[in-house]
Amino acid sequence: xxxxxxxxxxxxxxxxxxxxxxxxxxxxxxxxxxxxxxxxxxxxxxxxxxxxxxxxxxxxxxxxxxxxxxxxxxxxxxxxxxxxxxxxxxxxxxxxxxxxxxxxxxxxxxxxxxxxxxxxxxxxxxxxxxxxxxxxxxxxxxxxxxxxxxxxxxxxxxxxxxxxxxxxxxxxxxxxxxxxxxxxxxxxxxxxxxxxxxxxxxxxxxxxxxxxxxxxxxxxxxxxxxxxxxxxxxxxxxxxxxxxxxxxxxxxxxxxxxxxxxxxxxxxxxxxxxxxxxxxxxxxxxxxxxxxxxxxxxxxxxxxxxxxxxxxxxxxxxxxxxxxxxxxxxxxxxxxxxxxxxxxxxxxxxxxxxxxxxxxxxxxxxxxxxxxxxxxxxxxxxxxxxxxxxxxxxxxxxx
Length: 399
Prior knowledge:
- This protein is α/β, with parallel strands linked by helices.
- The chain has 2 domains: 6-44 and 289-396, Aspartate Aminotransferase, domain 1, CATH 3.90.1150; 63-284, Type I PLP-dependent aspartate aminotransferase-like (Major domain) (Aspartate Aminotransferase, domain 2, 3-Layer(aba) Sandwich).
- Helix content is 41%, strand content 13%.
- The strands form 3 sheets. A 7-stranded mixed sheet has the order 2-8-7-6-5-3-4, sandwiched between helices. A 3-stranded antiparallel sheet has the order 9-12-11. The protein has a two-stranded parallel ribbon with strand order 1-10.
- Strand 3, helix 6 (128-136) and strand 4 (140-145) form a beta-alpha-beta unit.
- It is globular, with a radius of gyration of 21 Å.
């Protein structure tokens, strides 16, 4: 058999989907599993968005679109991004894609050259596709630690220590997956000050959870002086409007829009026209459904954090945004005799029917920060209560 390329061999995965497949196998075998492993809203897509898609289908909107997206959607995105971030965005600055995830690869491909030793600084723990795509694109990944003591906000001093003349791209993610941490205004301004001393560095601002903020304010680095020109804003429809399967994301940068458009042309040709018209309805339509979902996530956050902190052996900081809890389970691992969080996760799934992800699914553990799990609280209150009850019983049994 012919051998794989080095690039294919280096390509990682997103373990949420790996664990989800494991859960599906157990459920198919008759096991009762409460799952907190996938970051997906459990709400239906709002009805007015569904209706817009149906109207697009019946109106014959079935074909290719311009690679950058239909003009109506690019204009709607430009208005929305301008309003939310307080910056001037024009429709020509916007590129639409089949989900937000492809723009991670496009940004790395645009900012770095394969095998040249170009560096990409990214958060650890972090969305696993960052590291996977950096490796696959032939760049050098440079993780910068997010620490519990700082509320999982990136440390500007630690960032500056990681930047070298080879650094070409910085990935920022706020609100953050997997911790739910938020980079506050003071830290964001300090990060911008660091970057002004290193003008060769582009910024990829992964802001997919921009509307799911529960504490404080959402701050985009693009809103700070001199940063919009070098920042690729990335956002999408999946999390805010429960449109994960519609596969519709976008990136915003005036200088790079033509380049990003060529990447879309070379890969997906264009995003689904039907999903694009549905997204126009999402952005221009009533905000009630999206706000109701955000309020529900806020209530679920309070519920799961209180429940986790009530279980002996677990401590959980309150996440400021997204829909993830990142409890410290160092003591809980000791109580049940698990060598680490991954062993704890596996035993919890098979022994108690509770599916979560462990910290190593999001990068190497941060030294001195202990063992963690990720819970996605995009789950009903009843599921949260049942899952926490099973977790408490599992730990109470001990070794």
